[in-house]
Write a structure and sequence with these properties.
This protein has one domain. Helix content is 64%, strand content 0%. The protein contains five helices and no strands. The two termini are 15 Å apart. The relative contact order is 0.17.
Length: 87
């Protein structure tokens, strides 16, 4: 299983956003963590609640969309749904 923080950091690098750029996008969407806290979340040193993680995912997915891509970063509800699916 992939660690959710690995997904966020990998996505950030994939879309070429600096930590500062991601924080600005995240904050403009209503994220409440500081830039330092956001960096700690992405490196796995701090756990985000599902709402804050989803705001980060929205910021990243909007950037993927700007680049002509899909929305590869899952939201909290998406992950629960995936686990509930029969194999």
């Amino acid at each position: 299983m992939t660690d959710p923080t690995d997904v966020l950091e990998t996505a950030r690098r994939d879309v070429g956003l600096s930590m500062a750029d991601l924080w600005l996008r995240y904050f403009s969407l209503g994220g409440m963590s500081t830039a330092f806290e956001l960096e700690a979340i992405l490196y796995g040193a701090l756990l985000a609640n599902s709402h804050e993680r989803d705001v980060i995912a929205v910021a990243l997915n909007e950037r993927f969309d700007e680049l002509g891509g899909d929305h590869p970063v899952p939201y909290a509800g998406d992950e629960a749904t995936d686990r509930d699916q029969p194999i």
